[in-house]
Amino acid sequence: MNGRISARVRRCSRRLRGHPPGLPAPAPADPAGCRLPSVAALAGRTRVTARHCKRIPVGLTTGGGLIRTRSGGVGLKSTGYRLDPNPDASTGDAGVTGDIRTFFGDSAAGVTPMSPEGWRGGHRGVTPASPGEWRPCRPDPPPSLKSGPVNAAGSRLWDGGDGWKAEDRTLGMQMLNNDAEVDPGSQTETETAAAIKAGHAPEHLPLGRNLLTDPVWEADSLGWPLPVETHAVSVSLPCWRDVVDYEEGSARVTSAMRAGYPRFFIHPLVEELFGLAEKTLAREGEGCLVFPSRAAARRAAAYAEKRGAERLRLEPFGFGGRKPDGGAETPNAGTVPENGTAAALAAASGGGPALTAVCFPEEFRKLVRECWRYCGETLSSRLAERVLAEYRSLEKTNAHADAVTGTGTLKDIADVLAAGAEAKRLIKERLAAVSGVAAGDVFLFSSGMTAVAASHRAVMALRPGLPTVQLDFPYVDVLRVQQEFGSGVEFFPVADGASLARVRELASQGAIAGVFCETPSNPLLSAVPVDDLAPALRAAGIPLVIDDTVATSVNLNALVHADLVTTSLTKAFSGVGNVMAGAVTVNPASPHHAILRRFLEAELAEHDPLWAEDAVVLEENSRDFTDRAHRMNAGAEALTDWLSRHPAVERVHYPRDQSVFGAMARPGGGRGCLFSFILKDAAVAAGVYDRLHICKGPSLGTNFSLCCPYTLLAHYTELEWAAECGVPAHLLRVSVGLEPPEELISRFAEAMKNI
User: Are 261 and 232 in contact (CB under 8 A)?
Assistant: First the structure.
């Protein structure tokens, strides 16, 4: 959901616990019928006042089971009734008034009996989850985590094995009206519930918490999704010790993790889909990972086999599944369940992606997972959610032919794909407009690393058999892709004069396939002097690939020099932090334009990696991208100015002057939202981190600020090498969000007090 929920609801929902003052907790329902014992408990009151109603968040349950609809009605979930306001009651911004006996009387107006499964009705102020009524809770859920009912806004609950649940264990059904919206950086209570595995929720959740004004930083927030919703791409690591223990594999941390960056952490929905694939396809002693396409699965199998794995099997699974076409992709006869569910899933998907399971001896799981991480060709949690929903639908009917040929499944999939296609068109046009190119020169991928890996394959196809060059200290997996795939890499951790001279020499000899760099780099925020290097590369016919994720295309026109520009759209372009995506932009002025574009078109013809529902979310998130980028620029500039003057700070890594971007700097642009800083006393870094009142976890570019001890997260097994490259273990990396700069300065000042 996007936009704004009323300030009234946000204020009330932020710290709501229990039920509103003045209303006693409801008594259990009389199972015999319509009589409500709770009426007796309310004998001392004759009216539900405006102040009672307005303290109940729209569509949410409190600890006492109260529900409020948009039109002002309240209900007692535990009574077994859904209650609407008296038609004669006055309603307004402050809430609703009405006689309690009208609300709670036997068979009174506005009272609708509930089925044993859940809330019913599509009454005013609430949007049904399906035509005519709310989807009921499953009366006998399976004993595994499953995504739950969905409302029109797309939010879901979780099933932990004993019913759909929320934090207070009373929410039996999601009830969100379709016009309830939230400010950037905040999450509604239902989204919070959707993000936490039922039965494992902490005692206090950040219900309705606006991460701009009330960040998740406390020690007991370990493992919470950031933002707190189902498809979050970051996770709360609030203390320095948490980060170290995470890297050490401590059960204290790993058991608390409810989310993580999707290339490193397997989302619960994706994990469930893996389990389904193993149950369906794996032989004894085998494991399965599901990839979003046959091409991605082939790359993973080839990567593992090259490093000693036995020949692996590729099996079609779910959406768009096709028969194997020979080679390593051998049929696995007899593994499809008797009811044909896997085959039905494939048939139902129409034009969906060709999900493919890689089946491997269990000892080679790590190798297959490495390719999943390095290339970024992960399975979207939304895609996994869709496949699991289709599977359950077919499993329930046990009549897959009817489910497939009926109007429901095919129509739903067709609508999803059509919406995704339109969203992708808008995203490409939005990116193209900022970069000044045609939309046809923009290619969308499922993550920033997928975009980098595709660019690397394109460069290698242009000049096969040669190593690439990495200039300046990069994001860890950008270097890994070049090390692990293709023909190796020449790595220059500092882009000084000597390094640039050597790269020019290699280019003149035709000894390299291409040059990769980030402007500015992550985490040192240095800018390669591309103005001095690009002419030599162009003259030698060597393609230059620049990643502009940190600067964003709002501040940097990398196409001034680059043949290809890669971007992680997961970051500032989205801002919300709830979707993974990436892009490659081909420079129309590049002498390699035609061949690079044909290569990428061919790759995407085989596999369109950005799932439709992710594209829809990304399009909505990115509508105010340009405005947010400018606001983040201003916040980062103010905070780095303050830190650079602090006596405890040794160095701030941030491009102080826009001139460092050279000819690529956009008029009126800034220098991005990201910076790193190093304290003079390494021993105090952990304490500063622990005390800092902003969200703490991986990723960057979110609307809410994020901090992490980057070196520990990215280079824990190679800290000495990283330090030699100028990236010490106590470096703190900060992504500045949309908070007022003076507020951020105040939080940092408090964390750094007395050091």
Answer: no
- Cα-to-chain-centroid distance, residue 602: 27
Compute CA distances 167 → 176, 200, 201, 206, 265, whole Å: 16, 9, 6, 10, 23
Query: Angle at CA 21, nearest 5°, toward 15 and 27?
Result: 110
Nearest to 345 by CA among 380, 395, 303, 271: 395
pLDDT in tens, 287-321: 999 999 999 999 999 999 999 988 899 999 876 54
Q: Which two tokens stand for residue 696?
A: 């703490």
Residue 573 DSSP symbol:
T
Give me the count of residues in the chain: 755
- The residue among 582, 351, 374 whose CA lies nearest residue 475 is 374
Contacts of 602 (CB under 8 A, 6+ apart): none
Residues 223 and 202: their CA atoms lie apart, in Å, by 10
In 3-state terms the chain splits into helix, strand, coil percentages (rounded to 5) of 40, 15, 45
Q: Is the peptide bond before 227 cis (omega within 30 degrees of 0)?
A: yes
Range list of H helices, 541-652 = 593-606, 612-621, 625-644
Across 437-462, average pLDDT: 97
Q: Is 385 helix (H, G, I), strand (E, B) or coil?
A: helix
What tokens does 44 get? 């001392």
Asked if residue 276 lies in contact with residue 388, where contact means CB atoms within 8 angstroms, the answer is yes
Residue 228: per-residue pLDDT = 87
**Confidence band, pLDDT 50/70/90 cuts, at residue 410:** low
Distance CA 188, CA 151 (A): 13
- Phi, psi for 87 (deg, rounded to 5): -55, -25
Mean pLDDT of the chain: 74
| DSSP class per residue in 203-261 | SS--TT-BTTTS---SGGGTT-EESSSTT-SEE---SHHHHHHHHHT-HHHHTT-S---
CA–CA separation, 142 vs 584, rounded Å? 42
H runs (alpha helix) in 307-406 = 341-348, 365-375, 381-397, 400-405
Residue 710: partners with Cβ closer than 8 Å, 6 or more residues away: 523, 676, 727, 731, 732, 733
As a whole number of angstroms, the distance between CA 361 and CA 313 comes to: 10
Beta strands in 26-140 (DSSP E): 47-48, 66-68, 74-76, 81-83, 91-92, 95-96, 98-99, 111-113
Task: Name the token pair of 13.
Answer: 């929902």
Hey, which residues does 225 pair with through a beta bridge?
Answer: 235
Q: Tens of pLDDT along 688-700?
A: 999 999 999 999 9
pLDDT value, residue 396: 63
Q: Which residues contact 489 (CB under 8 A, 6 or more apart)?
A: 467, 468, 469, 470, 479, 482, 483
What confidence tier does 645 reach under pLDDT thresholds 50, 70, 90? Answer: very high
The CA-CA-CA angle for residues 442, 516, 532, to 5°, reads: 105
- Please indicate, yes or no, whether the overall pTM of this predicted structure exceeds 0.85: no
Q: Is 116 exposed, middle or buried (0-12, 13-18, 19+ CB in 10 A)?
A: exposed
Which residue in 29, 45, 49 sits closest to 37, CA to CA? Answer: 29
- Please give the Cα distance from 187 to 189 (Å, whole number): 7
What CA–CA distance (Å, rounded) separates 218 from 202?
12
- Residue 159, sorted as left (phi over 0), alpha (psi -120 to 50) or beta, turns out to be beta
Distance (Å, whole) CA 315 – CA 317: 6
Question: What span, in angstroms and rounded, lies between the C-alpha atoms of 268 and 246?
Answer: 18
pLDDT bracket for residue 378 (50, 70, 90): very high
Q: Calculate the CA dihedral of residues 259, 264, 270, 272 and round it to 10 degrees.
A: -80
Residue 104: closest CA among 165, 153, 58, 38: 38
